[in-house]
Design a protein that fits this description.
Blueprint: H1 2-5, E1 10-12, E2 17-21, E3 24-28, E4 35-37, E5 44-46, E6 49-56, E7 59-66, E8 75-83, E9 86-93, E10 101-108, E11 111-118, E12 125-133, E13 136-142, E14 149-155, E15 162-170, E16 178-188
Antiparallel strand pairs: 1-6, 2-3, 3-16, 4-5, 6-15, 7-12, 7-16, 8-9, 8-15, 9-10, 10-11, 12-13, 13-14
Length: 190
């Protein structure tokens, strides 16, 4: 099912390694990669790994991923992107490897903001959904694939009709990070 769903996808910033394993598509990030725009740290990073396809109109994007090890600042999850300055990413993000978190970053006209929620330390899988209606986006997460909780509502006024959507991974720290994408599905809404 995963292979069928990703036939038309391409990479923005190739990762260090990609291979298919029994569980799905394993991505190994390059160190020092991230997506971030200006806020707090006053730096711009646009070299994370984004596996995407272009989609127009309203949709629901669903991504599930697993990660054998939580590493400090390592990230994996879903992403939508209009351009370098206007995007949303949601997924694993931990400032401390001992406390896994889900983070959502919305970059609006070159300014990133960030919200987080702690998850259990033993968590090694995430399910994420993002719904687009026009320029409005809602993000949900689940730790079991069934019970989804809303984590974010964002408005991106500079988003065009056709945008890039898919899965992302990056590793702002000094080491690579491995994550496995088990599902990437897009459902268009009428």
């Amino acid at each position: 099912m995963l292979l069928e769903n990703i036939r038309d996808f391409e990479w923005y910033n190739d990762p260090q390694n990609v291979r298919f394993v029994e569980e799905g598509m394993l991505i190994e990030t390059k160190p020092h990669t991230d997506f971030w725009q200006n806020v707090d740290c006053s730096f711009v990073k646009d070299d994370g790994h984004f596996f995407f396809k272009q989609v127009g109109g309203d949709f629901v994007l669903s991504v599930s991923c697993s990660f054998p090890v939580v590493k400090e600042k390592a990230q994996c999850g879903l992403m939508i992107r209009s351009d370098q300055h206007n995007w949303i990413k949601a997924g694993l993000y931990s400032t401390n490897a001992d406390v896994p978190q889900i983070g959502v970053v919305s970059s609006n006209q070159g300014a990133s903001d960030w919200s987080i929620v702690d998850i259990p330390s033993e968590c090694r899988k995430l399910w994420l959904k993002l719904r687009r209606r026009g320029k409005d986006f809602v993000v949900w997460y689940s730790l079991d694939g069934n019970d989804f909780k809303q984590i974010r509502l964002s408005h991106l006024p500079k988003t065009g009709d056709i945008i890039d959507i898919g899965a992302y991974a990056c590793s702002p720290g000094n080491t690579e990070f491995e994550s496995i994408f088990r599902e990437i599905e897009i459902k268009t809404l009428d």
